[in-house]
Amino acid sequence: MRSKLIAAEPKTFVLILDSDDEILSSLKAFARGERLSSSSFKAIGALSKVELGWFDWDTKKYETAVKLDEQVELLSLIGDIALKDNEPQVHAHLVVGRKDGSAHGGHLLSATVRPTCEIVLTESPKYLQKEIDPESGIALIRL
């Protein structure tokens, strides 16, 4: 992964992920390294593997909706990074396109880049903190 600071206010970075980079772990490592307390991001690119999920309200867990082990276009990736117990937590949703033109979307569980993923990440001006929501059981941003 390569990165470059492109604006100071608000602090904005471009991150370029290469083949075989995993998106979630790369974002988490970058946020930890830059000591980002909160940020949002968007991206496009292409992937060789992706696992998408959905939140099952009854079990209070993310379940796999689709796993694709094929070349797909990363049509849209959006998300945020906030701290939970002083560790960055990535929450992302994405849409991918298959060669037949069909699309799949959902909560990002894992994604392997091939050949590139171009991310624009902007630090939020207000501190965001995640806390466990008692009703859902998942970490949600609290203002």
Q: What share of residues are in beta strands?
A: over 45%
* Low-pLDDT residue spans: none
Which range best describes the helical content: under 10%, 10-25%, 25-40%, 40-55%, 55-70% or over 70%? under 10%
Secondary-structure-based class equals mainly beta
Task: Estimate the global geometry from the Cα principal axes.
Answer: flat
> How many individual helices?
1
- Count the strands? 9
Query: Mean pLDDT, rounded to whole units?
Result: 94
Any overview of this molecule?
By secondary structure, this protein is mainly beta. Helix content is 8%, strand content 66%. The chain has one helix and nine strands; from the N terminus they run ββαβββββββ. The chain has one helix at residues 23-34; strands at residues 2-8, 11-18, 38-56, 61-68, 72-84, 87-97, 103-123, 129-132, 139-142. The strands form two sheets. Strands 1, 2, 3, 4, 5, 6 and 7 form a seven-stranded antiparallel β-sheet that branches. A hairpin with a 6-residue loop joins β8 and β9 (139-142). The protein is flat and about 40 Å long. The chain starts with a strand and ends with a strand. The model has no long low-confidence stretch (mean pLDDT 94).
